[in-house]
Design goal:
By secondary structure, the protein is mostly beta strands. The protein has no helices and 4 strands. Helix content is about 0%, strand content about 40%. The chain is globular.
C-alpha cells in the first residue's frame, strides 16, 4: 500500500470555522498506515515541500480523500 497514490483535498472544515474555498485535490503518495483502534486508521502522506503550507496540521481538521478503484 505504500506505493498507492490518493487524491487529498485541503478544503476542510475545522471545528471552529468553515472554509468557503473551492476544493482542490492533490495527488499524494501514502507513506504509512497506522492502526489507531479496531475501527480507525491514520494515513501518513508524503507531502512535497511546495505543498507543505496547505498541509500544516490544525487541531480539529479533516481532509477529503478521493481514490480511483
Amino acid at each position: 500500500m505504500s506505493s498507492s497514490v490518493i487524491d487529498v483535498s485541503t478544503n476542510h472544515l475545522s471545528t471552529n470555522q468553515a472554509s468557503s474555498a473551492i476544493s482542490h485535490f492533490f495527488p499524494l503518495r501514502i507513506r504509512g498506515i497506522q492502526q489507531e483502534t479496531r475501527d480507525a486508521i491514520t494515513l501518513v502522506f508524503d507531502v512535497p515541500p511546495e505543498w507543505e503550507a496547505q498541509f500544516r496540521f490544525t487541531q480539529g481538521q479533516y481532509v477529503t480523500l478521493r481514490a480511483w478503484i
